[in-house]
Amino acid sequence: MSTQASRDPYSYTTASARRALLGQTPSPLRAYSFALNEGAKQVTFKAEVERELTEEERENLAVAETEVYADGIFGDATEIETVVEVVPLGRPLHPLPGGVAYLREGERAIAV
């Protein structure tokens, strides 16, 4: 883990998740946010999607999650979970408080 990551796990998680989604962002993904529990070494991602994901789209998110885990945000003990929530178009997004790694162009998120 880099020195920068240990100083700012929020920026590191954002960058890691953005990199992980490159080339495998599911088309129904509207927003991808996260929350950190540094004491428990846990990261929770929230994928807000416009419709239910196909099996392939779920696999793409799982691959992204695995890549973030491999980046070792909190070392080897990191637990990562992804919650998928269907939020139809026109409904407001509610990202998790840690940060937003992906926000589809033209979307607005309600700050938490």
Question: Would you spell out the secondary-structure blueprint of this structure?
Answer:
Elements: H1 3-7, H2 9-21, E1 29-37, E2 42-49, H3 55-70, E3 73-76, E4 79-86, E5 99-103
Parallel strand pairs: 2-4
Antiparallel strand pairs: 1-2, 1-5
Helix pairs in contact: 2-3
Distance between the termini: 29 Å
Q: H/E series, N to C?
A: HHEEHEEE
Measured as a percent range, the helix fraction is 25-40%
| Structural class based on helices, strands and sheet pairing | alpha+beta
Mean pLDDT: 87
Number of strands: 5
Radius of gyration: 13 Å
Number of helices, where a helix is a run of at least 4 consecutive DSSP H or I residues? 3
Largest β-sheet summary = 4 strands, mixed
- The backbone outline, from C-alpha atoms, is globular
Task: Describe the fold and architecture.
It is a single chain. This protein has 112 residues and is of the alpha+beta class. Helix content is 30%, strand content 30%. The chain has a four-stranded mixed β-sheet with strand order 4-2-1-5. The chain is globular, with a radius of gyration of 13 Å.
Summarize the structure.
By secondary structure, the chain is of the alpha+beta class. It contains three helices and five strands; from the N terminus they run ααββαβββ. The protein has helices spanning 3-7, 9-21, 55-70, and strands at 29-37, 42-49, 73-76, 79-86, 99-103.
Task: Provide key terms for this protein.
30% helix; 30% strand; 112 residues; single chain; four-stranded mixed β-sheet
